């Protein structure tokens, strides 16, 4: 087994499965068994973030493996990038509830999230010192 695949299976796959199952089961319970009051509505957004973050973990891991960067990404960066997907999905759902979502607004929101992640990675690159790693 390749070392990258073993690292993924050991580190990220259990978390991805737990987040995915918890999120989608929670969404199913919320949608099927409650009225859209304030509490269940916030739970809907919470479980929506979990349901979208879980499947995004393997995708972000693969993309960071396929397109390596300098400095190399760490585990928290992969989780943060997957969390951006979940936050984007819940934000889009929230905007749709208020009937203010448009394709242009969704693209602007996605661009803002990509810009924030780019600036965070730029900050990490500026603080990286290869001489300290050994």
Give an overview of the whole structure:
By secondary structure, the protein is an all-alpha fold. The protein has one domain (3-127). 80% of the residues lie in helices and 0% in strands. Helix 2 (13-33) packs antiparallel against helix 3 and helix 4 runs antiparallel to helix 5. The protein starts with a helix and ends in a 7-residue tail after the last helix.
What does this entry show, briefly?
With 134 residues, the protein is an all-alpha fold. The protein has helices spanning 3-11, 13-33, 38-66, 75-97, 103-127.
Q: Which structural class fits the helix and strand makeup?
A: mainly alpha
Our count of helices gives 5
Shape label: globular
> What is the total number of structural domains?
1
Topology record:
Layout: H1 3-11, H2 13-33, H3 38-66, H4 75-97, H5 103-127
Helix pairs in contact: 2-3, 3-4, 4-5
